[in-house]
Amino acid sequence: MTTRSPYLLDPIDNFCALSGHSTLLIDNKLYITTGYAPVIENGTTRVASSPWIRVIDLNEPFNLNRTASVTTILPPSIAPVNIPDNQGASFWWDPASSSMIYTQGAPTIDGSGGVIRDANLVSFGRPGKSWTGKYDSGNNSFGRWEEIDTPFLGQTGQVTSLRRFFDPVRRKGYIYGGTVVGDNGGNWNQVITYDAVQQTWTNQTTPFGNFDSVGAAIPFTTTEGKVLGILFGGTLNGTPLSMETIFIHDTETDDWYRQRTNGSPPIPRGHFCATAIKAPDNSSTQILVFGGFGEGHPSDVFALSLPSFTWIRLEQRSPDFLPGPGIRLQPSCDIVNNRFFTIFAGRSLVGGDTANCDTRQNALFMYDLTEREWIIDYDPDARDYTIPEPVYQAIGGNSSGYATMTEPPSGFAEPTMAELFAITTPSPTSSAPTGTETSIPPTETSAPGGKKASPGGIAGGVIAGVIIIIGALVWLYFRKKKRYRQIEPTQWRLMPFLPDQR
């Protein structure tokens, strides 16, 4: 006898779009979490969620117009129906315990949107709780995910922010700024840290103020093995950030710095994705940035090269449809086979918010960094990565590395930064995936004396299912209102992390 599905919709047949999700790449399989998801039902599109954990197998060749053929869904026996149906959640891999960590985040709009059959199983997580699942590398599969206690003293609601990453060496996860569920919106001055050894949370503040939830925080590993948080994009204290200003957090000493970039930066934006790839000889690291929401709806690809802090544009725009992703809001980014800059989902803004659905989950896009082109046929054996020509023309060296620009042309903002970003003898290495913009005046100085963040209480957030308010994007909207006519006012309320602008 066939067991009735606990879901009312099909993750592939009803797929239109997905945003607010998170991804992990394990054994060349892309794991994709829950998120906000307009769905196709009876020929029309409606607001819903995506309560499934999707898995795309990147070990076999396939055409990107047939992504469903290599997609599976983790069954309820592994990912229970009552896992948190959230957006903006943190999804981390802890190699020391061979476990994933799924935690924090805000409820999807309208909850499950009528996707989960039994409403009693709809869950959005709880403060002081997280989900984890053991991974068996022998058979390349997860065991059953389970909810565990992760105490967080004084937490009033779960935190949601796209500024997050996990340090696998110190086994700590970091979430910067963002909002807290239950506080009616607003961004908070906070850096919440998860200790995977103790399975507990702590909270501190930054010396700069309130970072919003739609910028980026990318981990950068120094030659000494120290992990630095690289923060950019979105807003700070309600003001749009220029991409010329980068914030650096030394997670070991808790010191903060602020550095000005060189080169032509991307336009200010939020809701984009970013990840990092190292040069073959480890002489530079490129933080790759795609998409997001900003003036003119960008679909460009940029690289921020470290340690020179140089912005380089790789592509002015991407094709609107496969093989390109077009204009995307809240896509995810990963590096596949140390060669392909891989985008999954995000809501297409071509012609309006989800006016064009990614039917049958054809929402995977790959930019070949070696050939500098969007591909339609994926070959898992293509693994030779060379640095794109615009990058080495800007920082020196060649396609194999050997960068000659090893610091910003005007120098680092603080002498300590020269030590942090020092390059030792180049050696072969591989990249690892990682994680938006501000308008404070550009500066060459850091927080005074590398000022440390001090402990601070955590408060605030968003009411369950309510959109997180982003002041900077309100500013962008009203400033450029006439340029955004293609997205109807009623559609703005469907955008998680964006204000209702009806």
TrEMBL record:
Residues 425-453 are annotated as: Disordered. Residues 425-439 have a biased composition (Low complexity). It comes from the Eukaryota. The keyword Repeat applies. Keywords: Kelch repeat, Membrane, Repeat, Transmembrane, Transmembrane helix. InterPro entries: Kelch-typ_b-propeller. This is Kelch repeat protein.
